Each structure stands twice: as C-alpha cells, then as structure tokens.
C-alpha cells in the first residue's frame, strides 16, 4: 500500500554511480504519494519514476530527463541539481516547490526544456540561466518571481518559448529579447512590467503568440508589430497604452485573436482590421476610440466575439455587420460608463445573426425597433 515518505533526491546521485553518472544530489523534497522506486537499491536508477537516462554514446546511463509534473511533491530546488550536466529536460510542475532558483542551474549546458510552472518559487530569475545555451523552452509561469527579466536571456538563440506569466516581475521588457529570431511564443502577461513595448519587437518574425496583457506598459503600440506576419494571437489589453491602433495590424494575415481592451487608445478603428479574415475575437472595449465602426468588419466571416464597449464611437451601425453569421457575442454598450455615441436604428440584418447569443447596445443613442430575431440572442 502506498505510504507517505520523506525522500532526498541526493539518493539518486549515490545510485547514479552504478549508472556511470556520478553526479551530486538533485533536489530535496518531501512526498505525499508513494515513490517507492526512489532510493530502492533493487531498482535501477534509470527505472525510477520520472527519470529518463540516455541510451547512446556518452549519454548512455546518464540522466537526461526528470519529469515529476503533476505529482504531489513539495520542497526546494537544490543547487546540486546543476551537476547533472547531461540533463536535457527538467519538468517540475508539481505545484508545491518553493524557495528560489539556484544560479547553479546555469551549469546545465545541455538543457533544452525548463518547466517549473505552477509552483511557489520566489526570488529573481538568475542571469546564469543564460549559460544554458541550448534552451528552447522556458516556462516559469504562476510562481512568485520578482525583480527584472535578465537581459542575458536574449543570448539564448535557440529559444522558441518564453512563458513568465503570472509573476510579479518588474522593469522594462529587455530589448535583448527581440534578438531571439527563433522565438515563437512570448508570454509576459500578468506582471508589473513598465515602459514602452520595444519597437524592435518587429524583428521577431517567427512569433505566433504574443501575450503582454495586464502589465503597466505605457506608450504607443509599435507600428512594427505589423511585421509579425505569422502572429495568430495578440494580447495587449489591461495596460496604459495610448495613441492610435496602428493600421499596420491589418498586415497580420494569420491573426485569430486580438485583445486591446482596457487601455487608453484613441483615434479610429483602422479599416485594415477588416482584412484579417481569420479573426475570431476582437476586443477593444474601454478605450477612447472615435469615429465610425468600419464597414470592413463585415468581411470577418469567422468572427465570434466583437466587443466595442465604452468607447466614443459615432455614426450608425453598419448594415454589413449582418453578414457576421458566426458572431455569438456583440457588445456596443456603454457599461454604465461614458458609453458610445452610436445613432440611428439597429440594422434589420442583425436579426440574421442566427448564432448570436448576447447583444448589448445600451448606453447609445439608437432608436427604433429591435429587428425580428431569427437567432437565439437576448437583447
């Protein structure tokens, strides 16, 4: 029967001597589940739960991966873990690790994946991680990390994923990150980052996912973001961004999701947004956008959510929006704030939106009758 045990992963190092991997202790942790294989001299180290050893060449018998994701473990990450110099993957998503990140992790020159997300790790991100020159994936999301993002991470040319979401990181977005030409995913949302979005971000031509939402970022949205032609999701909302929505966003031909909500943006909604035929979500609520709703939005046949709530939009609601047959949520309301200033009547074509489940047009100057409903929406 499974029994709770307190184990020290330095036992692994002792038995690694039997597998030509005479390395120092790994991690000290306590377990609330059975991991009877750990420290059991009758079981080869390479068969211990969560441990993978190499099978070829100089990696044969060496620990190349540790995956304890999802196990009910707790403890701290020991500095001696840095002695496992053949380690390629380290996945400790176990929800209960605490302490800080030891700089000795920088010794893991073969490391390609580092996933310590969903723990309670505090302190700063050690600049020594920049010595892990083969890193491709770094996920430290949902921890208690503080301090700044080390600019030295910009030297890790193989990086494809950087996920630092849900921490309390501060300071600016290092310009050095914009030199990571292989980067595909950059997630820095839900921190306390300040300053402008670097215009050099347009250099990340391979980026498909950019998440900077809910920080303290200021300045304008760089026109250069329009250079990220492979981008599929863009989250910039809940910042203090000002200025216009750059028309260059109309060049993001693969974009599916666009969140620019809860900022201080001004000026018109660029008609070029209507060129983004793969868009499913547009959320620009709670800004200071002005002008008419572009008729070009009627081209977005895949659009599910259109939220224009609480801006200063004027003029009529374009009839062509009745072409948005995939639309399920349509928000034009003032949300008890200043509201919009839309006038005229609700186009009868709105009644053709058969998938529409939510329609809110309150806080405007719209008159006339609500069109006969042919969908299932509630006014």
From TrEMBL:
Transmembrane segments: none annotated. It is found in: Cell membrane. One of its GO terms (cellular component) is plasma membrane. Residues 34-53 form the Leucine-rich repeat-containing N-terminal plant-type domain. This is non-specific serine/threonine protein kinase. Pfam families: LRR_1, LRR_14, LRRNT_2. InterPro entries: Leu-rich_rpt, Leu-rich_rpt_typical-subtyp, LRR_N_plant-typ, LRR_R13L4/SHOC2-like, RLP_Defense. Keywords: Cell membrane, Glycoprotein, Kinase, Leucine-rich repeat, Membrane, Repeat, Serine/threonine-protein kinase, Signal, Transferase, Transmembrane, Transmembrane helix. Its EC number is 2.7.11.1. Residues 127-261 form the Disease resistance R13L4/SHOC-2-like LRR domain. The lineage of its organism: Eukaryota, Viridiplantae, Streptophyta, Embryophyta, Tracheophyta. One of its GO terms (molecular function) is protein serine/threonine kinase activity. Residues 1-21 form the signal peptide. It catalyses: L-seryl-[protein] + ATP = O-phospho-L-seryl-[protein] + ADP + H(+); L-threonyl-[protein] + ATP = O-phospho-L-threonyl-[protein] + ADP + H(+).
